[in-house]
Amino acid sequence: MTATLVGHWPLSGDTRDASGNDNHGENFGADLTALGPGGRYVGAAAFDGRQSSVLVTDSPSLRTGSEDFALSAYIYTEAAVDDSLGDIATKFDSRRRKGFNFGLKRHSAACTSLSNYRNLQFGIDDEALDPSWTDCGQPGRSTFVMALAVHEGALYAGTAETADDHAGHVFRYVGDAQWEDLGPLDGANAVMTLAPYESALYAGTGRLKLLGSSLPESGNSQEGGKIFRLDGDAWVDCGKMGGERGSYAEYSHDTVHSLEVFQERLYGVPLYTQGLFRYEGNQIWTDCGSYGRRAFTLGAYRGALHLLDNGPGVYRYESGDDWTRWTRLAELPGVSQVYSLAVYQGRMVVGTWPEARVFSAAPGGGWSDMGRLGEELEVMGMAVYNGKLYAGTLPLGQVYRYDGDGCWTCTGQLDTTPDVTYRRAWSTAVYNGKLFFGTLPAGRVMSLEAGRNATMDRALAPGWRHVAALRRRGKLALYVDGEEVAESSAFADASYDLSHGEPLQIGRGQHDYFNGRIADLRFYRGAPSAEEIQILAEDRSTDFG
Fold it and tell me: Quick one: 531 exposed, middle or buried, by C-beta within 10 A (0-12, 13-18, 19+)?
C-alpha cells in the first residue's frame, strides 16, 4: 500500500482525527450532529455556507511537499441553492500562492453570465503561471465575446457581430483555436448571456448598442430580447421578457443582459429597460416589477438575488413578487456603474466604473475598497481561480490578479487592437483546468493556467456524493462516486512543493464557505489506486491506512 492515512475526520459528533496522528480539528460553528450518508444518525457535519468551518492546525504529517497525496470525502448538497456551494477542503498560503484548493465553483455575474455552476475543481500551486495568455481563437466573426459558460463538459461562447448583415451566434469550443458554430438564434446582433439551468443551456439575445464601447453601430436592427434553450444541437424558443419600462421604452426589452439561477428558478434582466423577470416554463416570463432603475447584472449571494445597478448601488431581492422586499445596500463611494460580482474568501466583491476598483461587502454593512487595477477605468468579468481572484478591465483589456492588501498584479493584456478607444476583457469562465476570458474588439478567447488544475466541467448532481482529489504521478485527478471525471495536464513534481505553515481548512477556502454536509474526510500521503478509490466510494468503513 503506497497511500498512508495521515488525517481522518469522520465529523460524526466531533472533529477529532481518527488516523492516530493527532491532527484534531477545531470547530467553528458546524453542526456535528447532522444525518450522514444513508441517513446515519450523527453521521456528518453540516456547514451553513455563511461562517461555519473546521480548522486543523498545520503539522509535519500534513505537509506533502512534492509528494503525491489525496483527499476523499462524502459531501451532500441540496438541489435548490441560493448561494455558492463553496470549498470542501483547502490548505493554501494565499500570499505565497502555495498549496491546494478543493471545492465547488459557482461564478455569477461574470460579467453577464452564470459561467460556472456546481463545477468540482482541484488545484495546486507553487507560484507557477503560464508565461503568457494562450490565444484560443475567434469564434466565427465575433467582435465581442459577450458570454462564456461551462455546460455538460464543454465551453460555450455567445458573441456580438458588427457588420450590417451579421448576427450574434453561440459557439462550442472544440480545442486549440477551433469553435463549432451552433448558429444564430433570432437574428439579433448579439447573444448577450448564457446560463446552465435544469440540465440545459439557456441563452439570451439582444440588439446591442456598440456606441457603449466607442464602436460604430451595427446596421442590423433586428430586435432581440428572447431566451432560447439548447436541445441537442437545436434551439428552442423560450419566449421574451415583456412590457415596457423606463426611458428606453422604444427598445421594449429587446436586449436580455443577464441570466441567473436562484432557488432553482431562472431569472433575467434587460439591458436598456427596467425590471426583473422569472421564467415559468414554455414561453412564459413573470414580470417581478422594478425598483425604479435599470440593472446590469444578476448574482446570487447569501440567500438573495443581487442586482448590480446602472449607478452606485447594489440591490438585494430575497424572494417573491413584492418589490417592497428589495433592499438597497450601502452606496459605493465614487462609483457610477457596477458591472460584475464574485465571491472571494466568503465575501461578495463587485467590479466598478469609473476607476476600475473592486469593493468587498463588509461584515457589518458598507464596503471595503480592495484597490484599483492599475490605471484602468472599469472592472468587468471576475472569477476565483485556484485560490486567487482575477478580474478583467477596460480600456486596455487586461486581466489582474488580487495579491492582497490592495495590490493587483497584471497578468497580461488580452486585446491589443490598435486605434480603438476601448478594449474589454469582459466574459470569463474556468474550464478544463484553465481560466478563460473573452475580449472586445478583437472578439477572441484567451486562456491561462495558474499552477495545475483538474476541473469537472459538468454540474455535480445534488444529494450525497463521494468525491476524491488526487495528486498522482505528475498529474491531478478528480473522482466522483468512484469514477474518474477529470485529469490535469502533466507537470514536474519538483516544480510543486506545497509545504507551508497554514492550517487545513474544512468547509472553507479562498472561494466561499461550504454550503452542505461533509462526512468521513480523509487525507492521504501517497495516492490510493483507482480500485481503492472505488472501494472508498462504496464502503465508507474501509480504511486504507
Answer: exposed
